[in-house]
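Recall the central idea of this unit: under ordinary conditions, the amino acid sequence of a chain determines the structure it adopts. In this exercise we apply that idea directly, starting from the sequence alone.
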Amino acid sequence: MEYRILGPLEAFDAERRLSLGGTKQRAVLALLLLHRNEALTRDVMVDELWGGQPPPTASKVLQNCISALRKELPGGTETLRTLGGAYELRLGPDELDRDRFERLLAEGRAALEAEDHAEASDLIRQALGLWRGSPLSEFTYEQFARDEIARLEELFVAAVEDRIEADLALGRHAELVPELESLVSRHPLRERLRGQLMLALYRSGRQAEALDTYRAARRTLAAELGIEPGRALHDLERAILAQDSALDTSPTAARGGDARPGRLAAAPLVGRDDELALLDAGLQDALAGRGRLFVVVGGPGTGKTSLGDELASRAKARGATILWGRGWHGGGAPPFWPWIQAFRDAGATLPEASTDDEAGKFRFFEAVTERVRAAAAEHPLLLVIDDLQAADTDSRLLIEFLASELPEMAVLVLALAREDTPGLDELARHATRTLRLELL
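Accordingly, the structure predicted from this sequence is:
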């Protein structure tokens, strides 16, 4: 299946375009796609689709839309499931064009940070090529879609800026000038675009026009916002006036190799395609700000740590920060040892623990959660707790506490445990998914 929301809503089963019904039925599908692999209660859906004043028939209309969609979607009730009083649309990795866009963009940004500009340009072009127009264009005025439309539109422009940055590093300044002039006209308050136009003009031998671009930016910002250009734009003007040689960069050769980044530059993993597909979908959710907890359970030698290493490789390639902690079998480890290790990876320390009473434990758990939230606001996180069976009880409880806050964070938590881990059933109830590994 392929679902498309980066433009008008569309759905394809291989080459067959699905009939999605009327306006309200299409809105139901769009809402479910925005929350794919999540259970939405009927009350929440009615409120999102009709706002604060739903008609008396809203629940019946919703039920009819669900039934009609099940008849059209491959898999029927397995694809669009009923869970108690809620509905859940099950999607596999990359079935939604938004997820493919965000994955390719994250990979492109990681390449850009690594100064592999040719790879970055190619990946971000692929991401932008998925767009067919304004996202969810038929739902522009619908309450449930407004925030996501605004987020995606901002992400699109930022992706264009990233691609231009890569192209400038590759020496494509002359061909970028017309595109940048058009972009600045459409987004006059974006200083990054103004700076990129100044740099492209300067490198094209058009210094006077580059300085005119700065003066135009200054006038626009003063008139519209009452502010001066930021330091980056001001410093660029000074560098152009000084004809700073640092502005005259030559194209950067593409760099790359066979080793993949990650905690251990993970070796290729064989025989775990299904598990990796599920974890990769969770990673995409986390990169998009919808955190997840996965628990992987298996005996010694089943490949739990190798699976975590592979996921870490993929996460790091997409720009995530990797935090890894491990339980200690030898005894004598301090409380929260896996968490101490994980925070140390980030150059940080845990808040001071005060767990003698339930109130102190709650305050500590809350402080740790806030530190994770703050770190994830800067860069998405993959937090791996390995050998969970050897961790102290409170370390396992802290995972459960954090899990309740994950849906609003760009964090994927991966807990790796043996079958005899105490409290495993309770932890599984907090998890998005529990994967059980057998020996291959």
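Residues 292 and 412 are 5 Å apart (CA to CA).
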